[in-house]
Amino acid sequence: MENLKPEKVFEYFGEICKIPHGSGNMEKISACCEEFAKSNGLDYIRDAANNVIIYKPASAGYETAQPIILQGHLDMVCQKDEGVDIDFETDGLDIFLDGDYLKARGTTLGADNGIAVAMIMAILEDKTLSHPPIEAVFTVDEEIGLIGAGKLQFDKLKGKRMINMDSEEQEILTVSCAGGSDFRMTLPVKKIKKSGTEIKIALKGLQGGHSGVEIDKNRTNANILMGEILKVAKENCGIDIISVNGGDKGNAIPNASQAYIVVQNPDAASRIKEFAALKKEEICETESGFIYEISVGDTGEFEVFEKDLCERFVFALSSTPDGVMEMSTEIDGLVETSLNLGILKTGETEIIMHYALRSNKKAGLIALENKMKAFAGKISAKVETFGHYPPWEFKSDSDLQELYKEKYKEKFGQYPLVKAIHAGLECGMFAEGINGIDCISIGPEMHDVHTTKERLSVSSVKNMYELVTNVLAALR
Ligand SMILES: [Zn+2]
After folding, report:
1. Where in the chain are the domains?
2. Domain 181-359+369-388 has CATH 3.30.70.360
3. What's the gap in Å between 312 CA and the centre of ligand 1?
4. Cα 244 from chain centroid?
5. What separation in Å is there between the alpha carbon of 143 and the centre of ligand 1?
6. What H or E segment, with its residue span, contains residue 355?
7. Whole-prediction pTM value?
8. Coil, strand or helix: which one is 308?
9. What is the pLDDT of residues 108-151, one digit of tens each?
10. Which CATH superfamily is domain 7-177+392-474 in?
11. Where are any strands of DSSP class E within 235-322?
């Protein structure tokens, strides 16, 4: 570590790696930031949530400049390989250099987002840099739901512009993120007894994926596919339904779904198979691993959804909005609004349909919620929404974006790629908390974050550190 440059950045990063700082274990790392502020003679606030804000006055000649917020999160995702002897509650990481990459032996490295904290500390410490007043914000528990940012006292910040350093690709400048909410419809279960033959329909082997960043990759949602199959089966064979289940996370595209149904004529199985085969052909390009299993079970008496519930449920599952709703007109290729039916669960007393809703526009999210409420109304489902987080909308007249692009070009000879992401970032919380904030999100090159293969490019840290200091110097 001693030979890595910028020296101070890697010195601080090394210190951070010695302190256990998995999400939910924020006391020690927060105290370390407090200690850092004290020993550098800087004003700071450590709030009840353990977020830390450190204030550094402007350098000479920058006294009248508007303050800049520099931000990163203190927590890391703790993952370890099997057999690795580490207690994330108490132990530090065993980091090592592999070529240009810094890694941790058998665990995540926590460069997401420890390197941001280290870079900001180095900026705060260095008395030779030119910069406006700095408000450094270190938040807790980002990885488990943007918790620290949600509790931050925004009135303690004067800055109206911010550099968030929680991005992972040097060449990308992120300028917007999605907001979202969980949307849950429930239908009370009423069952009746019905004689017939049981058929099991299992759909599996689909790709699945993240319901935000992979929603536009044409992946098949197993629950939605099940809805299509049940609708055709109902129209052609007059089925009854015992249960349907698929997916266990709102924010993951379900890769499997299974249904138990009852038919009067066992031949129905072959007609359902025919339709499933057609669907397989239709999606084979994107879903080569897709498998369907349709098996005939016992004949006898079963508890099935009563007629009206069966009607409403099959209608809901086969005609529900799902996937990409709207593309951005401002940023090429960005999904602006989407939803994902992540969980479908038949319980003893209710059927749950749980969606993750997202939009990079506040108005888009509200419109989508209203649309889903209207849809739920049509099938007399009960509705709950929760887990709201705000979007960070694209700002078309951003001075900070323009300055960053120019400074990036000076350094690398070309402009960065400007992107928005269709997932949540802490910037959304800041956009909600600080009216009219001008914000960018950047970061050095790292790969496979949240896995034990996580690695950080040392040369990219140097590049990005220099770039950020160049940007600061230009913020008169
Ligand atoms: Zn992060």
Report:
1. 7-177+392-474, 181-359+369-388
2. yes
3. 42
4. 27
5. 7
6. strand 350-359
7. 0.89
8. helix
9. 999 999 999 999 999 999 999 999 999 999 999 999 989 999 99
10. Zn peptidases (3.40.630.10)
11. 240-245, 252-253, 257-263, 291-305
